[in-house]
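User
New here, explain this?
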Amino acid sequence: MPAEFFAPISNQKTPPVYSFFNGREWVESNSGKTMAVRSPVDGSVVGELQVLAPKEIDAVMETAAGSQRGWEATPLNKRVSVMHLAADWIRHFEDYLTALLVREIGKTDSEARSEIKRTADLIDYFADEAQSIRGETLDSDNFPGYDKGRIAMIERVAYGVVVAIAPFNYPVNLAASKIAPALLMGNAVVFKPPTQGGISGVHLTRIFEKAGVPAGVICCVTGSGSDVGDVLVSHPLVDLITFTGSSDTGAAIAGRAGMVPLVFECGGNNPAVVLPDADMNLAAREIIKGGFAFAGQRCTAIKYVLGMQGVLDQLLPVVLTQMKEFVKMGDPRSPETKLVGPVISAGAAEQFQQWIDESVKLGATVVTGGKHKDNYMEPTILTGVTPEMPVVVREVFGPLVSFISIKSMDEAVAIINQSMFGLQASVFTKDEGTGLTFAKQLNVGTVQINGSPQRGPDHFPFLGVKRSGLGVQGVRYSLEAMSRLRPILLNKPQ
């Protein structure tokens, strides 16, 4: 069944060369160029993706723009049915998609399987929630100085063509979190999957196509950011851009996009603040999960821990002890591997190593880990870290947690608020009142009390401030973000 279902998307050779979806059919690019996707697990070629030429992107955008109005006119209940079927197809191919994610991006089987299950549940939830989105009416006499006679009928309508750009670390879930609400609200979607993770993105597109998204309403274009992404985000037919990726790339897209609405999830360097009364076992467990899941390659990963020196002295041995139980680096295909498989590329591992080495030269100490071989980076803990070191200033996408000693809670607030990032922060304390008081001082999108940063549950609002994002996501919030208000005023003669 998988081979037959997905047959049109590749040439079926080993390794396969994948087509792109122009909205109507799966085709190879006229550019004659492809790019290889190599597995971070063993370096093998998983497959090759098309590199589109600029004229092909123009054609795709024109197709999407020409198909969007008809899709928006389709009754919502039919759009909802399409999304539910897509979710069912994802569940049907859970094993197939899980194995693909493991090989393509190096997630452990459990992490990959969780992503696939979560994606299906998310699409279903989107579909159900879309049916509760309603407009409203306003009477003119509610405002001082106006009599009856004007009624504003306010409805939510589609933007038009949405360009959706997904990251490598959740190439199915974060792609679906953009595509599903955009389609449900009546938009056409031009989807650009990441290079690493792009094969999974191609498969996801096929699922939406087979679920019944009409011709032209969803397209999938592949290629590097410089080859394809720059053309997409500055295209005159784009009406909204939704993007997940680095802060630098987000800033570059914003500069090219002009006045096009943006919904961005960008970088995060998330702190965990451990107060003296915290449950050290709980804090350690959440720091380990938050810092090392998927080898730390998450925008919501915990990157540094703030606490008084006495607190850190208590916490560190607990963390090291629990790491023996919960963390084991290795091949993600092995059931013995826990949390830490390979990072996405050898280049990423080398950059990660460089930042660690730079921080050590500035006075940091490696407590455990600190070395890499090929794509495998040891889970690492640094002590003696200061806020100006590279591992704190930059978003370090790897299995690293840095310990920073502070003299007061005011200092912790200052360090967090002075950072260019503002996605999430964690606070650990047995006194929830103290936690709430502290949380209200932090300039970040979300504060977790006694838990690690995370995107879910997916119906909660998810957002970043500063260089960590634009707009709000989460089921209802994403549906609203993928639509705009259209007031129609009915003026009655007096």
